[in-house]
Amino acid sequence: MCRWAAYLGEPVFLEEIVCAPCHSLIAQSHHALEGKTATNGDGFGMAWYSERPEPGLYRDILPAWSDPNLRSLCRQLRAGLFLAHVRASTSGATSRANCHPFAHGRWSFMHNGQIGGFEKVRRRLEGTLPDTLYDSRQGSTDSELFFLMCLQEGLDADPRGAVERAARRVIEACRAAGQEPAFKLTAAFADGKRLLAVRYASAGTAPTLYAGRFRDSGRCLVSEPFDRESPNWEAIPPGSFATLTRDGLTVAPFLPEPVALALVG
């Protein structure tokens, strides 16, 4: 599984989260404490928002700890909204096209989790995409495909509903393929103004997600805290959809599967 961190607030240098803390994202790339694997060395990436509506994007296949360009960029780049990710591959080869975050228009996305048995449902799910979204697919991961499915479901107008509907399609595809869904989804989306995150698992334990304040400048959503001594971190419960704006954080239920109603008779 992967590790990621996202920030929204007053502009800060990316190094203040990606590189500088004692348990920074770079530190987590070789010594994660709450992930399925301690090492996340199958590439890294960042998406940040500045003067243009579309995010800047930098990704590479090197481990985050061994690329000097990453530290140099983080030292110079300042942004009020950014996503950063270190990858432990569960689907797709190690290539730039498969490194997170993914971007489409003004949206960026990164994921920690997997669609279990992806190869059995990949063709079924890809076939549901309209040509415009299918043609924009650059890599081969389940994560990028799910991002495109969320865009198809109306991420712009109804973010939580779109992600729920896309997740429901994954679950239904798994069942149609004769396998029990094993979908783990802890992911972040950004559109230049908002930071959205979801924590969900169709079975078992959902990958971790925390929210916390970053000094007085803003808030973070992270896979695991980068400052483990701080009391500011709050675990987002499984089955949740978090919306972070400059006005604050709200957490709502995430329900991709219809709730069965008990019969009263």
Poorly predicted regions are 260-265
> How would you classify the helix and strand content by structural class?
alpha+beta
The number of helical segments is 7
Please compute the radius of gyration using only Cα atoms: 18 Å
Strands, count: 13
Shape: globular
From the 3D coordinates, which CATH architecture of the domain at 3-113 and 185-253 would you assign? 4-Layer Sandwich
Strand adjacency order, main sheet:
3-2-4-1-10-9-11
Q: What is the CATH superfamily of the domain at 3-113 and 185-253?
A: Aminohydrolase, N-terminal nucleophile (Ntn) domain
**CATH top level class name of the domain at 3-113 and 185-253:** Alpha Beta
What oligomeric state do these chains adopt? single chain
Ends apart, CA distance between termini: 46 Å
Order of helices and strands: EHHEEHEEEHHHHEEEEEEE
Q: Classify the helix fraction into a percent range.
A: 10-25%
Beta-sheet strand percentage? 25-35%
Residue-averaged pLDDT: 88
Largest sheet: 7 strands, antiparallel
Q: Fill in the CATH topology of the domain at 3-113 and 185-253.
A: Glutamine Phosphoribosylpyrophosphate, subunit 1, domain 1
Any overview of this molecule?
The protein is α+β, with helices and mostly antiparallel strands and 265 residues long. It has a domain at 3-113 and 185-253: Aminohydrolase, N-terminal nucleophile (Ntn) domain (Glutamine Phosphoribosylpyrophosphate, subunit 1, domain 1, 4-Layer Sandwich). It is 23% helix and 31% strand. The strands form two sheets. The chain has a seven-stranded antiparallel β-sheet with strand order 3-2-4-1-10-9-11. A six-stranded antiparallel β-sheet has the order 5-6-7-8-12-13. A hairpin with a 3-residue loop joins β9 (210-214) and β10 (218-222). The longest helix is centred in the middle third of the chain and has 18 residues, at 159-176. The termini are far apart. The model is unreliable at 260-265 (pLDDT under 50).
